[in-house]
Amino acid sequence: MVFLTQALALALLAVGTFAHPGESLRPDIRRRVNHLKHNERRSVTECTKSLHERGWINHQADRRHAKLNELRTKAGYSPVTRRDPDLDVELFGRQAGCVLDPEVTEGPYWVAGELIRQDLLPGVSGIETGVVVHLDINVIDVSTCEPVPDAFVELWGCNSTGVYTGVVASGNGDGSASEINNNALRGLQPTAENGTANFISVVPGHYVGRTNHLHTIIHHGATRLENDTISGGTISHVGQLYFEQTLLESVEQTVPYSTNTQEWTQNAVDQLFQMGFQGGDDPVVQVQMIGSTIEEGLYGTIDVGVNPAAVQNPSNVNWWTANGGVPNTDSMWTGYPWENGGGPFGGFGKKIRAFFKKLF
Question: Domain tally for the chain?
Fold first, then answer.
């Protein structure tokens, strides 16, 4: 499995594959392969027996079932039982099989210093519209099979029409300079004693070269400041969350998703999505409609496996401050998107393509 993954990765490295317009997938693939080769690598699935024996999985199933019914009641619907044929049993975490591990880069649109908040919909331009998803994330230490309390989960993604807030870049919306001050669909939440963090966001839209996805970073040992941001600590996890293709097809038919004219790269042809399943991982969020239509919102769950001792060093393109966004002039993403094969991996990309031309 790992050998095939490395072979696929080398093939992808040899061609011009892109994540965001102009963004190379090469560093993402390279990091994924190194991660899969690591002898000490474990996933949440390897903790299933231990979690079952301690009753943690059953507790999470009860908690998630109660949360779904709470959302249904608020929406004017009656509670549902576990035996309801329309319920996805995986939603409640009994399999502990939805996992992520450190594997990909943060991409060019990570803004550090975002606010600690559960509701990510508000921004300077108002409330973001789209299919709302109430996201329930469990963070589990795969080295001990214990939930991780007192960590901070950071979440961000593009809006319903494929535009990232907080960043001014060619190909990202209309390139308005004021966008740097918008912090919608970005934020952090602390994990509770049971390792859980909750967010309210929207199912992300699509843009050229990538399927719909969310970004996540897990912080450890950070200090919560009076202005509801964090300082210090380490980062153990940089990853991406995805959604089932059938769900996305329904979402993309609703407004404002349907107004997006960018080419849609679906799950089946997104290289990073496919590689996310190697090594026993499953990066897809399990979802359940709150009401009778997706427009009434979704409840989504996923378990994230991390090694708190690991240290990742992502590079933020901007900082969020009390006065709005500020560029990070030391970021590796400064000046993105790069032209004419530029950027930190441009030269390497030319060399690897030349090598494969000789080889084949």
Answer: 1
